[in-house]
Design a protein that fits this description.
- By secondary structure, this protein is mainly α.
- It has one domain.
- It contains 2 helices and no strands.
- It has helices at residues 11-46, 50-82.
- α1 (11-46) runs antiparallel to α2.
- The protein is rod-shaped, with a radius of gyration of 17 Å.
- The model has no long low-confidence stretch (mean pLDDT 88).
Length: 83
């Protein structure tokens, strides 16, 4: 976001940023379960390794991404009502 705060962004820039975050969130929603399944499979086949723990590191990132998306959507909704 180039260290620019959401309340200082123009409406058009905020909508564009919302779409970007939405796309990346969808990609993460698809990727995280695939990574978890691969981690479980590798654990069963090869035993415990770093690939067992790695998928768990992506879950907090996904949660933060979803929270960011909700905040941006609320900001866009608030601004669209004001217009």
């Amino acid at each position: 976001m180039n260290k620019e705060r959401r309340d200082q962004m123009s409406f058009e820039a905020l909508v564009k940023y919302e779409k970007l975050i939405e796309i990346t969130t969808i990609i993460m929603i698809v990727a995280v379960p695939i990574i978890v399944i691969c981690g479980v499979y590798l654990t069963v086949k090869q035993g415990f390794s770093t690939f067992t723990v790695t998928p768990l590191l992506f879950v907090p990132m996904l949660i933060l991404q979803l929270a960011k998306l909700k905040r941006i959507q609320a900001e866009v909704e608030g601004r669209s009502r004001a217009l």
